[in-house]
Write a structure and sequence with these properties.
The chain is α/β, with parallel strands linked by helices. It contains twelve helices and 22 strands. The protein is about 30% helix and about 25% strand. The strands form five sheets. The chain has a nine-stranded mixed sheet, with helices on both faces. A six-stranded antiparallel sheet has the order 8-7-10-5-6-9. A hairpin with a 2-residue loop joins strand 5 and strand 6.
Length: about 450
């Protein structure tokens, strides 16, 4: 018995076979990430993978039975994967894993298009917590949908293929940036200045047109997609960083990409559900709107998760309240990894480290534990035991030093339903930046943690 706690580095502990599994799992994750930059993209990808695993569409009026595998896509942005086990759900409940698949980005405003000084722009409204200066002078891709009159939906994805054009938000050159440089970092770039360049070639058929570039862009869009400027008022379009997930370092031990928060947790939970042969009834959820408060029809404050659990309960003549009370949940969300470049933001004994396994956060919140679920000792002990019994590398930590700031996850919304819940995720460096950094060892450790939880 070890009397002292020692955090373990997964790469130091792993043998050649385990290392091969870590790197192999990362390749599947990178592919998932590249195809899932938005919550809509993630829903499409999850549906495809689920159908390949034999999952069929879910119906609230269906009576489920042991062995059933179902998927439910709520309004194109919120995914539920259900695997019905043989255990009595009245006594055993449901094993629930929840991650979110929305990430900070730049949404278009309802009337976004304008021309100024020979360039056409789209105005944006940033979504989630970002450092605005990080989104200038970098390649951007446009993702989303536009609804035409009559209900026709046009899918848009421009900037991801190497032959596509990209989009761009300008920044002032350093030679003329003295005034900008004198401002606090958070005010150097104003939200209203995050406008992306989308065109510079004027239409030539009307010399009196004072917005000839805008006209030319609208003609291109109308020819390709069939929509006009007013249709943008009925769209969900956003700019995200263009490009694919990339390995980092000579040893390729890390991955840099857009959207690790929180798809780095969504992918392992989905894979664990697919791969598990558990007798428990399993539910994996990809939530939307976490970055902006989890409100709305596709956020975790929606009643949909209760409706899904109620449908499962009713299928077996069980009391939904009793099923919820006996259920257990991993709220799979990222946490801040210790960064030696910004050491003062962390309390080193109580933070998580890159390469040291899945991160368990008993509570999140801010300062005096405000607005958080706080997992009780009994559930923490249960989680500890299943991880230790199944060889899971894990660590505990808080989201930075107490009075520095803080953050939250969807855990509190699930716990509010009377379900034991704890945050278990992946440590991330540069969280909420356009390109974040994670360890392949940690994402694989979370997969093993989710697999043990299902078991």
């Amino acid at each position: 018995m070890e009397l002292k706690y020692t955090r373990k580095n997964v790469y130091k502990e792993a043998d050649g076979k385990e290392l091969e599994k870590i790197y192999g799992f990362a390749e599947g994750y990178k592919k998932f990430l590249d195809n899932s930059k938005t919550e809509r993209d993630a829903a499409v990808t999850a549906k495809k993978l689920a159908e390949e695993k034999g999952f069929k569409p879910f119906s609230f009026s269906e009576k489920l039975k042991a062995g059933d595998k179902r998927y439910f896509i709520n309004r194109h942005k919120n995914v539920f994967l259900i695997k019905v086990g043989t255990e009595d759900v009245s006594k055993d409940g449901v094993r629930i894993m929840v991650a979110h698949v929305d990430s900070p980005r730049l949404d278009l405003k309802p009337n976004p298009m304008y021309e100024d000084s020979g360039l056409c722009y789209l105005k944006t409204h940033y979504y989630g917590g970002i450092k605005k200066y990080q989104w200038t002078a970098m390649p951007l891709a446009l993702h989303g949908v536009v609804m035409l009159r009559g209900g026709e939906r046009k899918e848009i994805c421009v900037g991801e293929d190497e032959n596509d054009p990209i989009f761009y938000i300008t920044d002032i050159l350093p030679h003329l940036g003295a005034e900008q440089s004198a401002k606090p970092l958070g005010k150097a770039i104003d939200g209203e200045s995050l406008n992306a360049v989308i065109g510079g070639l004027p239409a030539v058929d009307d010399e009196e047109d004072k917005e000839a570039v805008k006209t030319a862009v609208l003609k291109l869009l109308n020819k390709k997609y069939g929509f006009t400027e007013v249709d943008l008022q009925c769209s969900e379009l956003c700019f995200v960083p263009a490009g694919k997930a990339r390995d980092v370092g000579f040893d390729a031990a890390l991955i840099s990409a857009y959207g690790h928060d929180d798809k780095v947790c969504a992918y392992p939970e989905m894979c664990a559900l697919f791969d598990s042969d558990s007798t428990h009834t399993l539910l994996a959820v990809f939530a939307d709107k976490e970055e902006v408060g989890s409100d709305g029809t596709t956020g975790m404050q929606s009643k949909v998760i209760s409706d899904v659990i109620e449908t499962i309960a009713n299928s077996f003549g069980a009391n939904p309240i009793e099923v919820r009370y006996n259920s257990k949940c991993i709220s799979a969300d990222v946490t801040a990894a210790y960064d030696p470049a910004f050491a003062s933001a962390f309390e080193k004994r109580n933070t998580t480290f890159i390469n040291c396994g899945a991160a368990v956060s008993k509570y999140t919140g801010a300062r005096g534990k405000s607005s958080t679920n706080d997992a009780d000792a009994e559930f923490m002990g249960w989680i500890r035991d299943i991880f230790e019994d199944n060889g899971v590398y894990w660590q505990t930590g808080e989201l930075g030093a107490i009075d520095i700031g803080g953050g939250g996850t969807v855990a509190k919304f699930i716990a509010n339903l009377g379900i034991d819940t704890v945050d278990v995720g992946v440590p991330v460096l540069s969280m909420h930046a356009p390109y974040e950094l994670i360890s392949k060892a940690d994402v694989y450790s979370l997969y093993k943690a989710c697999l043990a939880f299902c078991k």
